[in-house]
Amino acid sequence: MVTAEPAYAAALCVGAVAAWLWGGGRGRSRGQLFFAGGAAGPAAGPSPWRWPRWRPRGRWGPEWLCPVGAVVLALLGESPLPLIAGAVAVPLVRRQVRARAAGRERARRADAVIDLCAVVAGELRAGGRPAQALRFGAGSTGALGAEETAVLAAARFGGDVPEALRRAGRAEGAEGLAGVAACWHVAMDSGVGLAEGLQRLEAALRARRDQRERLRAQLSGAWATVVLLALLPVVGLAMGWAMGAEPLRVLLHTPAGLACLTVGGALEALGLWWAARIVRAAEEG
């Protein structure tokens, strides 16, 4: 049986290790400033009390909190099963984190395309030439991404600007650049005002973005329900532990507990997947 004092000590040690890994040295710098009487900068010189520290390469994402929590559960439950679950959870959480980051990047690119239409149209109405307006809009919004050099070179030296814009529009979130390419093509061939076409395209893209944001706001309640369903088993375990029922020992060290843990985990995973699938289908629709 794990008493409260060793459990708290283990949790404190694991938390200290996590803060040490993710802290980036901020705590050590503050400690040096405090004990040095506020001295800072290169004039203070290297500190003789600097401890050697291993710094991980790359960026530590939130998925690495899963093994930290698994270590705490393994110490509290005296079982290696939480360690296995924590190792399995790392790639799954990393996938979700990357998907969220990709979604934010797509939204950022879509907003940049809308800003590009507005800036280029404004420059054209102020009397600027199309190539100059496109160069100014690309520099101020960053909507062209990796294809910015090719698009600006085509605009400056008389190349195929619509084709360059279509290539830039293949990036996720930058699909609106295909509309910019169409406006450019029509304006160069028939002499129709490019500024007016870009203003209409901006209004259409902005309306589409507003519709997507309204739908996302309406579905926020459904996502909150999904998160609540995911946290209910954790709340139940915490309540059982507070009442002295030792739920971790029952779940991890008895055949009935292992069976309940397996069946309950599978059912919860299936329910969360189904609920998330319904919400995502509504978003895509």
From TrEMBL:
Organism encoding this protein: Streptomyces coeruleoprunus
The organism's taxonomic lineage, starting at the top: Bacteria, Bacillati, Actinomycetota, Actinomycetes, Kitasatosporales
InterPro entries, per database record: T2SS_GspF_dom
Compartments reported by the entry: Cell membrane
UniProt topology in membrane: Multi-pass membrane protein
Keywords for the protein's UniProt record, in alphabetical order: Cell membrane, Membrane, Transmembrane, Transmembrane helix
Keyword set includes Acyltransferase: no
Name by which UniProt lists this protein: Type II secretion system F family protein
Cell membrane keyword on record: yes
Occurrences of domain Type II secretion system protein GspF (ranges): 117-239
